[in-house]
Amino acid sequence: MESGVQPALYRSLDTARQNAPQPRQTQLPRTLSPIHQMPVFSIVCSIIETLVKHDYSYKTMPCKSIILFLCAFFVLGAKASFADGIPDDVNPAVIYAYFQIGDPDEYDQTLSLDLFKKQIREFSTDRYHVASLDEVIYAQAEKKPLPPRTVVLSFEQFDRNFVDTIWPILKEYGLPFTIVLNASRLDDAETNGTLPDWGEAKKFIDNPAVSIAMFPFHYRHLTGLDEEEIGYDINRALARFREKLDYTPKYFSYPYGEYSQSTENVLKRYEFSAALTQNSGVVGMSTPRLVLPRFTLTDAFGEIDRLRVTSAALPFPVSDPQPFGVFAESNPPTLTFTGDRSLSADDLKNTSCYASGLRKINVSVKDHQVTASANQLFEDSKNRINCTIPVAASEDLGDADGLRWRWAGFLFVYPDLE
Q1: Rounded distance, CA 290 to CA 262, Å?
Q2: What confidence tier does 318 reach under pLDDT thresholds 50, 70, 90?
Q3: 135-144, pLDDT tens digit by residue?
Q4: pLDDT at 395
Q5: Which residues of 58-89 are buried (b: 16+ CB within 10 A; e: fewer)?
Q6: Side-chain half-sphere CA neighbours of 295 within 13 A
Q7: Coil, strand or helix: which one is 386?
Q8: Please, which residues have CB within 8 angstroms of residue 80's CB and are 6 or more apart in sequence?
Q9: Are 388 and 261 in contact (CB under 8 A)?
Q10: pTM for this structure?
Q11: Is residue 242 within a helix (H) or strand (E), and if so which, with residue range?
């Protein structure tokens, strides 16, 4: 059987956390046996069904044909091939994005408190390494290995509920996290005599377990704003952080996950170390620092099976995505990108892409350029195209299904459809 080499991660999570040894090389099979272990693939199909229902659209879409296609692919495809290991596999990390926890919000980005607690208990097991954003950025910059299933927890709602309810849970389990602060809201809290205000925020800035990111001064859609307007809003927020906290955030989060070439140009001028999007995917060494992907966690797609699938995902390194950013001129968009040269031509031929509400879409690969196109209009204002490549799982991860996925996600926003 033909084999490829992929850097394994670690035999012992505890040892990895303490010493971060160099990863050993593991031979990974590139093909499945013809039988495919039917009970295992039933589990895979169940997991994929959950992902398809909830991860590709803000409206729940059953998309049964995707399930049938994927199950048939695995169960019947006696020669299904899998991707080789690449340099980015040495230290991948998955960032999760939390929004409203508890009470529902108007954007369907709510996660119940009970499910949040369940997730935190899962993340606290030896299966995961919960890292700070600082740790991941440093390890990837220095090309140092990270433990298996390294995840980062990020929170976009710094409110009374976070301070009184969420923070104590994180503290109880000793988990590091990233919190995104909004200078305008902190100003309003100080003016109105409410909490959390700047004084409360300082407690988190002084906490070594916490990484700080910021929004522009106004949390708003960036549609139609030019670089001067975006820069003014960011500079105003930075000035308030320096004045109130004597602190300059080095991480940025795009409001609503919306970014463009203009926003990236501004962030480069202000020398942010990294910026968080709402594209799904995995962060690898080659991932551009100003477009770090995150998987969102809400009631719609926050079950433990999904955590176990996404936390084991691998980077799908790409360059020159067109259109760049989330604002596409056409509906549906034609997505093109170049697969990294570390991916073989055979790997890229196994790329499959899925679009919000449109099921599996057409994919063509020429040299290392991938083109994904759909023939139906997006109906929502916020839509996704997610592209994956199947990978055989390392024995160190011990996945029951024996599979992982290279994952690259792209977000498309159509303001006129709101």
Answers
A1: 12
A2: very high
A3: 999 999 999 9
A4: 61
A5: beebebeebbeebbeebbeeeebbbbbbbebb
A6: 31
A7: strand
A8: 31, 32, 73, 74, 390
A9: no
A10: 0.81
A11: helix 227-245
